[in-house]
C-alpha cells in the first residue's frame, strides 16, 4: 500500500503564493458528483460514499485535520507472530447531514480477521481501534473507541483519522487473513432521540437481570431436572424483560424490528477490505535490544493523588509498568535529586517480595534497574539495605538483566567521582553488577583531552572499572556516523563493557528523535540508527514527564524549556474520557514499530550477516544516516517484504 504521495489523478487545490497560487475558489475534488438532493440530507437513504471521503494511510503518516482526500485502496499488511502492525483510516465529510455543531456521524464496524482454514484474529482482542486526537494541533494521542461498533462525529472541513492496530499472538497459525471495516453514515443523536429510561426503570431492570443471574449461576453439580427448570425460569424472566415498555420501540405486531436492515447496510455502507499476511517468524518474547524508559513516580503521585508506600501507590505504579511492557519497553521508575542524581528502580517492592520476582522474571522485560537505596522506608536499615538487596538478587537467574543507573549526565569532576564512589560500594557486594551512566561530555573542570569530543571519547578510560554500560547521547555524533568507531574503540567488550545510546532534547530536526511534530519516519528511524551504529541497548529519560498537575483529568502541558513531546510518550486516560487506562501517543506506537524492525533486521543478519543487513537498509532506501532516511512509507514495507521473502521457510 503506497499512500506516501499524491496519486497523479488526485488534484490538490492551489495554494496562495505556491506554484502560481491564485485562490482555491472553484476548485472541485469531485466529491459530490452525482449527489442531487434538495432539502435535508437523510443518511439512511443515500450511500455513505456520497457523503464522506474515506481513504487509508500508513502508520508513519501524520494525518491532520486539513489533510486532503486520496483514493481508497484495499489495506494489505504483513506481520510476524508476536508483532503489532497498524494502519490508519481517514474520513472527511463531503457534505453536512448532522446538527449545528457536527457535519454528521458515522458508525464504524470492524469484523474479525479470518483465514481460509478458520483461524481468527478477534476484534476487540487482537484488533483495536483508536481515534487520533491532536495535541497542540499535531496528531498524537490515540484514544480508544468502542468495538466492534462505534460512532464517530465528523466536523465540517476536517479530516478525522482512526488508528487500527492488529496484535498477532505468538501461537497464531500463519496464513492469509481477511476482514472488513464497514463505515455507515447515520443520523446524529440529536436527530434520533432515544427514549430515556428513568432511574426507577433502570433499577427494576437491574434487579430483574440480577435475578436471572442468581437463578442460573449455581447450577454446577445440580441434577439435570433442576438445571432444566432453572433455565426455563430464566427464559420466562428474560422474555418478560424484553416485552417490557423499556424495549417497546424494537417491537411491532410481527415481532422485533432491526434497528437497521442488513440489506440497507449492504447497499448504503462503505466497505473496506483488510488483508493481513501472517508469516511463521515469531518475534522473541524478550526483546533483543534492551530499551529502558523512565517513568516519573513523582508525576504519578501528584496527578493521581497517591502517597508513596500506600496500596494505591503500588497499584498505580503496577498499572504503568504492565501497560508499557506491550511496547517491548523495559520500564524503570525514576526520582530526581540535585545535580542530576537519580534514584531508579523497576520494582517498587524489596528484592525479597514476590512481586519483584514476578517483575524481574517476566520474559517481556529485557533489563531492570536496581535502586541504590531504599525507595520506601521499611524494616531494613539504610546502611545494610543495598547489601541485602544485591545478595538476594545475585541468587536469581534474572540477575543478568540487572543494572544500576545512578547519575544522569555528570558534568564535572565532583559528579563523576560520586558515580565512581557509589559504583565502588555496589561492586564491593557484587563485582559482576552493571553500572550504567548517561553522558555527553567528560568532566568540564578536568579536561581529559584537548578537544571536547576527544574528552568525551576518553570517558570510558576515566570511569573504568566502575562503569559497565556507557550510554552516550546521539546528539554528540551530529551527522558524523564515522565517529562511532572512535567510541567503540575505547570500550572493552571482552570485560563486559557495553555501548548504549539515548536521545532527549537533542538531536533536533532533521535527525531522528521523538519530538511532537516530527515526521513519522523520523520517529521510527531512531531504532534504525541504533541498528546501523551497533548499539546494544537504548535509554529514554522519561515517558510521562509532563508539567505538574494535581487532578488526573487536568490538561496536559509539556515542560517549559523542552521541545514539545520530549519526555512525554503517553497521556493519562482521564484527560480524554472516564477511562483510567493510559493513552498511547503515535510516537510510542512508532517506537514499537522501530523496535520490531530491529528484530526483522536481526533475523536477516542471522542468515546473511550484519553487514548485509545494513546494506539492505540502504539498498531499500530506508536509512543511510541521521540526515538521510526515507520520508515515505513505501521503502519500509519493501524492506520488510524483502526480509519476509528471504527468511521464510
Write the layout of secondary structure elements.
Elements: E1 52-58, E2 75-81, E3 83-93, E4 104-110, E5 113-115, E6 120-121, E7 127-135, E8 138-144, E9 149-154, E10 160-168, E11 175-186, H1 199-216, H2 224-242, E12 251-252, E13 255-256, H3 262-268, E14 270-282, E15 291-296, H4 297-304, H5 311-325, E16 330-336, E17 342-345, H6 354-361, E18 368-369, H7 382-393, E19 402-408, H8 413-429, E20 435-439, H9 452-457, H10 459-463, E21 469-473, H11 474-477, H12 484-489, E22 498-503, H13 520-533, E23 538-540, E24 570-571, E25 583-584, H14 586-608, H15 610-619, E26 623-625, E27 628-629, H16 634-647
Parallel strand pairs: 2-14, 15-16, 15-23, 18-19, 19-20, 20-21, 21-22, 22-23
Antiparallel strand pairs: 1-3, 3-10, 4-9, 4-11, 5-6, 5-11, 7-8, 7-10, 11-14, 12-13, 16-17, 24-25, 26-27
Helix pairs in contact: 1-2, 13-14, 14-15, 14-16
Notes on the protein architecture:
This protein is globular. With 649 residues, the protein is of the alpha/beta class. It starts with 51 loop residues before the first strand and ends with a helix. The chain is 29% helix and 23% strand. The protein folds into 3 domains: 48-193 and 261-282, Immunoglobulin-like (Sandwich); 199-243; 291-586, TIM Barrel. It has a 9-stranded mixed sheet with strand order 17-16-15-23-22-21-20-19-18. Strands 2, 4, 5, 6, 9, 11 and 14 form a 7-stranded mixed sheet that branches.
